[in-house]
Known about the structure:
Layout: H1 2-12, H2 14-23, H3 45-49, H4 52-76
Amino acid sequence: MQRAAEVTEFLNNERALDESFNTRSIPEGLVYPLGSLKTLKMPSLGRAMCAPSIYIFYTFLLAVNSVVWLISLKTAL
């Protein structure tokens, strides 16, 4: 609860927030990183597109988009 109160107090302090944006830093001890940003490896686009949650979603969008285009073309003719 105390940590949440400190974060809320920081976010409500306009002067401290402006200074933080200008210096591009967060006051020490307010937020702790979960890990080094340099050690996080992002998956390549090819590997990301092969994930079932991604390709099923985009296949669904492609199918819906195709149906909409076919309907719009049929009504236009």
